[in-house]
Write a structure and sequence with these properties.
heterodimer; A: 260 residues; alpha/beta; five-stranded antiparallel beta sheet; disordered N terminus; B: 258 residues; mainly alpha; 84% helix; elongated
């Protein structure tokens, strides 16, 4: 079934332009034991958009994107990707959907028993089932060149710095040409210069591969570079929405505290 | 107190149910397309070849010590000539498979538990899953099957070295030819001794691989959980080996020796 036909059409009331909502979340709730992490999350991600989700640690940012890829299941509410309810997808359908979603983990999550080349080869041979060695080599080199780390092709993850791991993690994710990218705190633990490089790389990759992205962060420099729109999450619900400039000059004290 | 008992049982039932579900997932994934042959061979090398020295030395010393300990008692009863056959039967039927399986539980189950536990903590397993790959097929099926294949081979090798150890120990006090020693050893043995003994090591291998994978794959987040996964993998695998051995001995005595 062509998922393009199933995109939910959302009318932008301000401009009158029709936007394709590739991710649509409505009244999402998630608890762990007695702790309510997501109390009422509703949002939409439009095609080609870079959406930044800001929030303090423990506010439920990572939980919300883990629900999107089916790593966690919501307790209540609706979570649709390309119009499909994620919690209702069967195993094969979930796998097919996951191929269209790239997830960059906070740590990079490189397979530490494999070289960089093997890390990038893994999704090509296991997910896309490619077997042509020349084609695989070409794709790996192209992707590593894109993130500026072609010379690290034979290195082990333990030989890489934090920033390099994130770049390789990004290359491994993008090698499947996903339509949606989810970034879980992509600049956490990096120095300001490397953080800026990663933020600019996210923007470059979004422009090159035309992905729609959700970037979970509390790094305002990253948000400023990458965001088309920002949502602020607090106590399991979104409390503010707008562009970087709108929120920077807005009245809400909690939102303002992120910009100080 | 009265309320905590059902809660404890409830937790145990949930854990047991989890293991059954995990086992079902394992069996379902064995027959899925895209079997990881290269990874299976790599795991056989890691689990089998890299355990050769530990298992070999253990096996040799088992036979050596058993002979040294039993020879004086047998001599007191004038039954010294039965030492080779007694050692052979003890090693092949019981001591070899169980001790080697317990040694492997310590080495292999802990290693699998710690490896998968650290992959879980560092989100590598999640990364595999969200990319659309199949981590059960790549990580679990290969490791469990490698244990099922390699534990019987390691046990047979250890059994052979234990007999060699017994021969060496016999030669310390009395000169006995290798031909005579091994003739006496093998005369006391039959396939009814060997086949059930090797058969049960297949189940020991399954227990070692499965428990190691289950504990590692389902470990909690945080570095402490890696140690917990490794530790509980050894404890659970050892208990399973002893339990399976008790069942195997009972079944063997009913069906093979009756």
């Amino acid at each position: 079934m062509d998922t393009n036909n199933k995109y939910e059409q959302v009318a932008d009331q301000k401009t009158g332009n029709a936007k394709e909502a590739v991710v649509s979340i409505s009244h999402l709730k998630k608890s762990f034991g007695t702790k309510e992490v997501l109390t009422d999350v509703s949002m939409e991600l439009n095609r080609g958009e870079n959406l930044v989700v800001l929030g303090k640690s423990g506010s439920g940012k990572s939980v919300s994107i883990k629900c999107m890829v089916g790593l966690l299941t919501q307790d209540e509410g609706s979570l649709k990707i390309f119009g499909d309810e994620v919690s209702e997808l069967k195993e094969d359908a979930l796998k097919a959907m996951r191929i269209k979603i790239g997830f960059l983990f906070q740590s990079g999550a490189l397979y530490d028993s494999m070289t960089v080349k093997e890390n990038l080869e893994f999704p090509l041979t296991r997910v896309l089932k490619l077997s042509d060695k020349d084609d695989i080599q070409h794709r790996i080199e192209e992707m590593l060149e894109g993130v500026g780390l072609l010379d690290a092709i034979d290195k082990m993850p333990s030989d890489l710095s934090g920033g390099m791991r994130k770049r390789i993690g990004l290359a491994r994710t993008l090698i499947l040409k996903p339509e949606i990218m989810l970034y879980d705190e992509p600049t956490t633990g990096l120095d300001p210069i490397t953080s800026r490089e990663i933020s600019e790389l996210i923007l470059q990759m979004q422009q090159k591969y035309h992905t729609s992205s959700i970037i979970i962060t509390h790094d305002m420099a990253c948000a400023k570079i990458t965001a088309d729109r920002i949502l602020v999450l607090s106590k399991g619900a979104f409390i503010a929405e707008g562009s970087y400039e709108d929120l920077e000059n807005g009245p809400d004290e909690l939102v303002q505290s992120f910009f100080k | 107190m009265t309320r905590s008992v059902p809660a404890t049982w409830n937790k145990q039932f949930i854990a047991a149910g989890d293991q059954v579900v995990f086992m079902g997932t394992f069996f379902r994934n064995i027959f899925r397309r895209g079997f990881e042959w290269n990874e299976l061979l790599r795991q056989c090398y890691i689990i089998g070849y890299k355990s050769l020295s530990l298992v070999g030395i253990t096996g040799f010393i088992l036979g050596f010590v058993l002979t040294l300990q039993s020879a004086p008692t047998m001599k007191a009863f004038g039954a010294e000539s039965f030492v080779p056959s007694m050692v052979a039967i003890s090693i092949i039927r019981e001591i070899g498979p169980v001790i080697i399986a317990l040694i492997c539980a310590g080495k292999i189950a802990s290693s699998i538990g710690a490896e998968l536990g650290s992959m879980k903590v560092s989100e590598q397993i999640d990364a595999m899953e969200v990319s659309g790959a199949n981590p059960i097929q790549y990580l679990v099926v290969t490791r469990v099957l490698a244990c099922i294949v390699m534990i019987p081979i390691l046990t047979l090798m250890a059994d052979a070295l234990a007999l060699a150890g017994g021969f060496t120990a016999s030669n310390i006090s009395n000169k006995i030819s290798a031909v005579l020693y091994f003739n006496k050893s093998f005369a006391a043995l039959s396939f009814v001794d060997l086949i059930p003994a090797v058969g049960k090591t297949i189940f020991f291998g399954f227990a070692i691989g499965f428990v190691g994978c289950y504990k590692g794959y389902n470990s909690d987040r945080g570095t402490e959980s890696v140690g917990v996964a490794a530790n509980s993998a050894v404890v659970s695998a050892s208990l399973w080996i002893i339990l399976l051995d008790a069942i195997a001995v009972q079944l063997t005595s009913v069906f093979a020796y009756s």
